[in-house]
Amino acid sequence: MRILNVIRRWEPIPRNQMAQMTGLSPSTVTNIVRELLEEGLVEETEPAPTGQVGRDPIGVQLNPKARSSIGIQVSDTRLTAVLLDFRGKVLRRIERELRDQSQAPPSPPELVIRIASLVNEMQDPSIPLLGVGVAVAGMVQRSRGVVFAPNLHASRFPLAKHLESLLDVPVFVENEVNTMLLAEHTYGVAQGWQNVLGVNVGLGIGGGIIMDGKLQTGSSGAAGEIGHMIVERDGPLCTCGRRGCLETLAGGKALIDPEDGESVDPQRLQRATTYLAIGIANAVNILNPEMVVIGGTHCHRFSVAEPAFRDLVASYLLPINQDVIIEPVSLPDAEAVGAAALVLNDYFQP
Q1: d(CA 316, CA 341)
Q2: What's the pTM?
Q3: Strand stretches in the chain, DSSP E
């Protein structure tokens, strides 16, 4: 898979460069590429002009129709699904309502049936499906596909196992903040960076961590939960049972004017912005990432793309972390795209 990984990252790429980048001999590279061509995993491109004497080299790139993956984000009220080709391009997108706010969430077994039905609807019979990735709002033991998602009334539910029994393809389950971060690292604004912090600002606040180019999930799948960082000892009561968690002071519920229950109160927003900056700065000071990627349904309210927000975060950073880059999420449906990327990344593992 080493050659395939090089092609994936640098496509299209001339064969002579593959030899240099992998340390393999030119003849070995030629043989491997021939096999990949025969399997239909890669395709050759037109020669790229170099301006040098001799024949221009023929490039090699992934065949987009060689394989596909499906990613599904499970939110409180809807399912969002994307079909990705072998290069990570979104071929199809479907959104389905799970419930309205007045209804209870579907039971875990019913959720499995809904997801399986959507997968069958999403597939392209002409492109072999490698697997399905599912992003959920909750803690996940990824190695076993077990979900702890209070909003879905799912506790220790083996979602991956049940889906695999219906779909007959591998199923990968991950926390939605991790998949958002993975999408940006694989296809978006965080490409090429090795140490990245992801922050999702919705009704609550979640986090994800990439260190040395790899997603870090921790011993029980809860790494990066910065929303439950205590930032005010005697602050509001959190759903986790403790007081003063970051998400109680900077999450979506902290922004809404209690009198009308809908509009964002300017004073609350100003206070929440300060707490969000403190929380992000604390995480950066601990992890020392090169980049912070911020997404979620409420991130736009904090003007995270503006210099003023970056300056506020910088005011709480150690000098060594002042160069950290802060960017908003760049990809539509990043959570679902990242779920599909779980499948593709697993296939490309050396």
Answers
A1: 34
A2: 0.90
A3: 13-14, 42-44, 59-62, 68-74, 78-85, 90-97, 129-136, 139-141, 146-149, 154-158, 171-175, 196-201, 205-211, 214-216, 291-295, 325-328
Q: Please state, in angstroms and rounded to a whole number, the distance separating the CA atoms of residues 170 and 156.
A: 19
pLDDT, position 253: 84
Q: Two tokens at 268?
A: 């609350």
Peptide bond into 12 cis (omega under 30): yes
Separation CA 219–CA 343 (nearest Å): 22
What SS3 class is residue 266? helix
Whether residue 50 has pLDDT greater than 80: no
pLDDT on residue 150? 64
**Cβ-based neighbour number of residue 14 at 10 Å:** 18
- Condensed to tens digits (0 to 9), the pLDDT of residues 272-315 reads 999 999 999 999 999 999 999 999 989 999 999 999 999 999 99
Residue of 214, 128, 139, 141 whose CA lies nearest to 172: 141
